Amino acid sequence: TGATASFTQADTARNGGLTIMAAYPADTFSAPGPILEDRPTSGGSYPGDPSYTPTLVDQTSNLLRTWWPAALGAWAALLAAIVAARVRSGRDLTYVGIAPGQLPAPGEEIEEAKLTSEPPVAVRFHPPDGLRPAEAEVIEEERVSDEAFTATMIDLAVRGYFTIAPAKTSMTGKVNDWELTLNPDGPPRSELSPFEDELMRAFFRKRSQVKISSLKGDFAKRIGKFNKVLTARSDTQGWFTRTGLLRRGGTTGFLVFGVYLAIFAGFSSGGSLFLTLGQGRYIPLLIAAVVVLVSLVIALVSTTKAAHARSARGRAHYEQIRGFREYLTTAEAHQLRWEVGEDIFSKYLPWAIIFGVADRWTSLFARLAEEGSYTFVPTWYVGYGPGNPAFHVRSIGDSVKSLGTTGMSTLSYTPGSSGGSGSFSGGGGFSGGGVGGGSFGGR
Q: How far is CA 330 from CA 27, 87, 324, 349, 359, in A?
């Protein structure tokens, strides 16, 4: 009635709705005009607004849009300077005045300097002085690699601490499990390096016999402990100019984390960040950030090893390692020499593992055994079949390869993990089948 309209409803259910519709006659109001107000003079909030004042971010983005070739060139020059600085800082030290690979006498002080060029490789016919295969692998690769654990296991068996015997074969006759038996008359444990003792503890905790297949579960943690102890060994020996060793995937993992963080930030802003970028305001900045981040990570990753310098002592050991690697990778069967009663095949097998030529080494001695030149039957590996040297060498070669795939994947397995764990990836450092196929530790 008059200026008031009333609406009623007799009953409304709980959570029910009430719709009201009202209409005015067409001539009730005179034609209203728009209500206009002047905007504040402090600047608009979006490009295209006459009063819009660009922010510093906007100005930077606009500059990149216009001058991106110059910006790209400047960044390339800066990146090249970063790479050059890392390479310079990562040059090995070397002793001045003595031959490469020679160590000073105890107590002797010799001047050290940055290495300016790689000296030629001097072939060495015996292992580096005072080093075990795993230690040599650390000095050469500057990290604890997959082969270090396997080479140490074979090395300890060869030295008489335990024996390795096939425990199970597959339907095709391939060995897929092994039994390790502690040698009660073996050398004293006090002679072991800390990382070697850690491996012995891992296998023979309160037991004298163990099958590889029974070690599933927490053994990956033991491998991790082995790696830590070997890294500590590197630090105490001073093989590098700074402590710690290289690790796989560290910088890559950081990059992936940064990408996830950026995506999370975009969604956390309610999508406004992506919306702003989609409108094109900060696209140049986004592209520049991606280019800078990706190229910087690539530069850092590609120079990681180059920036990690060996000490003069570490470099001397490295020259010895290079020389012995040259011998094992190039020597032919007729060039091999050994003392009577010396099992040079077993003695150098762990070294062949870390050098990636164990298959070649096995093939050489299988041929020598067939010719009757090599008659030694190793005792650290208890194989099946006849005890002639040729058969034994082949048996060791085949079994060690299988140990590097099936055995190492078992040792590094952690329940509940979809990708395995420990230091081994892809089943350890070996690949291939019988003698003549595949190789150890190929890089």
A: 106, 30, 10, 15, 13
As given in the structure block, the two tokens for residue 243 are 């402590």
Closest to 174 in 3D by CA, of 357, 409, 384? 384
Instruction: Give 160 or 273, the one with higher predicted confidence.
Output: 160
* Spatial contact of 406 and 176, defined as CB atoms under 8 Å apart: yes
Question: 184 is written with which tokens?
Answer: 């009660």
Three-class DSSP labels, 221-247? HHHHHHHHHHHHHHHHHCCECCCCCCC
In the chain, what are the domain boundaries? 95-246+307-411, 250-301
User: How far is it, in rounded angstroms, from Cα 288 to Cα 75?
Assistant: 10
Could you give the CA distance from residue 81 to residue 256 in angstroms, rounded to a whole number?
25
How many other C-beta atoms can be found within 10 angstroms of the C-beta atom of residue 1? 5
With 0.85 as the threshold, say if the pTM is over it: no
Number of CB atoms found within 10 A of residue 148's CB: 29
Taking the C-alpha atoms of residue 218 and residue 224, their distance in angstroms, rounded to an integer, is 10
Which residues touch 50 (CB under 8 Å, ≥6 apart)?
44
Q: Which has the minimum average pLDDT: 300-304, 354-358, 398-402, 427-431?
A: 427-431
Handedness of CA 84, 86, 89, 90 (dihedral sign): negative
Mean pLDDT in residue range 72-101: 89
Q: Shortest CA distance to 160 belongs to which of 135, 132, 188?
A: 188
Q: Do residues 389 and 398 touch, judged by C-beta distance below 8 A?
A: no
Q: How many helices (H) and strands (E) does the chain have?
A: 13, 5
Place of tokens 């007729």: 334
Tokens of 274: 């992506």
Q: Is pLDDT larger for residue 298 or for residue 383?
A: 298
Which tokens sit at 218?
């927490």
Tell me which residue has tokens 């196929």: 437
Angle between helices 219-237 and 146-158 (to 10 degrees): 90
Q: Nearest-CA neighbor of 321 among 191, 195, 132, 155?
A: 132
Rg (CA), the chain: 35
